[in-house]
Amino acid sequence: MPRSESQRAIARHALTRLSPRAPDRFLSTRLMKTGLASLVISVLGFGVAASVHSPSAAEGTDGSTLDVAAPIHTTITPGVEQPGAFQRDETTISRSNFRAALTEGADDTLDPATLTEAAAEAAEPARLDEASVKARTAELTEESGETRREAKELAKKERAKKKRKEAERKANGVATLPVRSYSIAARFGDVGSWARYHTGFDFSAPIGTEIYAPTAGVVMTAGSDSASGWAGTHVVLRHADGTQTLYAHMSSISVHKGDHVKGGTVLGQIGMTGRAFGPHLHFEVYPAGVKPEDVYRAVDPAPWLHRLGLKP
Predict the structure, then answer these.
(1) What's the number of CA atoms in the CB half-sphere (13 Å) around residue 8?
(2) How far is the first Cα of the chain from the last one, in angstroms, to the nearest whole number?
(3) 193 secondary structure, DSSP code
């Protein structure tokens, strides 16, 4: 703050009271103080300059060291004009110049009459070609009709298939093993005193046990004949696929030649007629075209029974 006139007067009065050598001492003291001040200012200036021109590390409040980024050096290419700090870039996209570009020429194309006409066209319902609509409707109707006919035809076939299966089931009856309570005394191919090898299955059961037709067939033989004397009283059935089955050593017969029987029909009862060594049913299977008298052309009954869903 500048000193007032009274302060200056007091200072001058104090100087006049000093000895003749006092002005020299005062001047020396003043020069010394001025030199010290200049020295301090120079040191401080050097420190500030060093902090500006060289990277340094500052110490944080917690004692950690904070890295100070290196100075950024700018290279100016000779001959290239540098923009001023406050110069406006006319190529910069802003709301103002972008809005001006959009509205430029709008008065020529988007006049009120054009807008009104466009709005009217948008509000008007689309016009359809009636002929095209009728043609497409006819095509869809025809396709729909074909689909319905195909569905009806498929349903009809399924019903016919179901009826055939039901008729077959009724005609064939219930698939069953020839004897329902038994023990197997011998299987196909076994070797024993009866022959070179066994030609069928032996279902052992007490005399009088009922014998059933495994599936539908026609009775070809019911009784005994000289050609099959070894079989005693027996029955032969011929089935739909031409296969023939033989039931031997029966004690009695419940069917007649020419009868059509279903699966589960009682054919007779177990006995031990013919060449037998105990009460049992000797069951054989002959492929289509093979006569039951040709015993060594009989086949294993197991696969044929398996096809009926039966397992002895």
Answers:
(1) 4
(2) 131
(3) T
pTM of the prediction? 0.50
CB 213 within 8 A of CB 237: yes
- The set of long-range contacts for 198-201, using a CB threshold of 8 Å and a minimum separation of 24, is 199/284, 199/295, 199/296, 199/298, 200/246, 200/282, 200/283, 200/284, 200/285, 200/298, 200/301, 201/282, 201/283, 201/301, 201/302, 201/312
Q: Is 146 helix (H, G, I), strand (E, B) or coil?
A: helix
Bridge partners for 268 per DSSP: 211, 253
Q: Which two tokens stand for residue 152?
A: 């009806």
Q: Under 8 Å CB-to-CB from 130, ≥6 apart: which residues?
A: none
Per-residue pLDDT for 206 more than 80? Answer: yes
Q: Which residues, other chains included, contact 235 with Cβ-Cβ below 8 Å and sequence gap of 6+?
A: 211, 219, 221, 222, 246, 247, 250, 253, 255, 267, 268
Question: Which tens digit of pLDDT belongs to each residue from 232-257?
Answer: 999 999 999 999 999 999 999 999 99
Q: How buried is 54 (Cβ within 10 angstroms: 0-12 exposed, 13-18 middle, 19+ buried)? A: exposed
Q: What is the DSSP letter of 289?
A: T
Residue 139, token pair as written in the block: 């095509």
Which of 125 and 102 is assigned the larger pLDDT? 125
pLDDT digits (tens, 9 = 90+) for 181-201: 999 999 998 887 766 789 999
Sign of CA dihedral 13, 14, 15, 16: positive
